[in-house]
From TrEMBL:
Matches recorded under Gene3D superfamilies: Leucine-rich Repeat Variant
SUPFAM superfamilies referenced in this protein's UniProt entry, alphabetically: ARM repeat
Pfam families according to UniProt: HEAT_2 (PF13646), HEAT_PBS (PF03130)
InterPro entries membership: ARM-like, ARM-type_fold, PBS_lyase_HEAT
Coiled coil region boundaries: none
Domain of life from the UniProt record: Archaea
UniProt-recorded name of the protein: HEAT repeat domain-containing protein
Composition-biased stretches (Basic and acidic residues): 1-19
Region annotation (Disordered) ranges: 1-42
């Protein structure tokens, strides 16, 4: 390499600035890498259902969406079913899990029919259908068991079949102690 090129390379290296070290006690640069920021005002059940539904559908912060889902479930009622179903499509597992738990907590009368529709909807992703199978499994009733049995035997997705079978197994295990008590009497 010629002397001119060496000098030019040396000057280029010298011009590159190294990032400054983070002074002790300052965490902002590190915090910015740590993940979602905790908002000052997290949604709760005192918020209007339509505002919570909007957060679930449009908010970029995962913590806001997860809290909005929990708040919707606590509010209860028919008006929160569809926003919780929307949350089943969320890219974050925690939001989806909160939605499944919330839907199951709403009870059979409000969500069983909707979960059966979701489970049978071939246009819905297998992840959503699997979530619907889990919610139906939480219902612990004969109608849900019938719907799950059909899905376990007929669904084209192995993922959905496994979730349906797991829900059936959980149902059967929950019933087992009651059967043993009945046999003792």
């Amino acid at each position: 390499m010629s002397e001119g090129k060496k000098e030019k390379m040396t000057k280029m290296r010298e011009k590159k600035e190294k990032p400054a070290a983070v002074p002790l006690g300052e965490t902002d640069p590190i915090d910015s890498l740590a993940g979602p920021q905790v908002p000052e005002d997290l949604p709760d059940a005192t918020w209007a259902a339509d505002k919570l539904a909007e957060i679930v559908a449009k908010e970029g912060n995962m913590l806001l969406r997860a809290n909005a889902v929990n708040a919707l479930a606590k509010k209860g009622g028919q008006e929160v079913v569809e926003p919780l179903v929307t949350a089943l499509k969320d890219p974050e597992d925690i939001v989806k899990a909160n939605a499944m738990v919330g839907l199951a907590a709403l009870g059979r009368d409000l969500v069983q029919k909707r979960m059966a529709e979701l489970l049978a909807d071939k246009e819905a992703s297998e992840e959503i259908r699997g979530g619907a199978a889990w919610v139906l499994g939480e219902m612990m009733d004969e109608e849900s068991l019938s719907i799950l049995t059909r899905a376990a035997e007929e669904d084209e997705s192995a993922f959905v079949r496994v979730h349906a079978k797991a829900s059936i197994l959980a149902y059967e295990q929950a019933k087992a102690p009651a059967k043993k008590e009945d046999e003792k009497k």
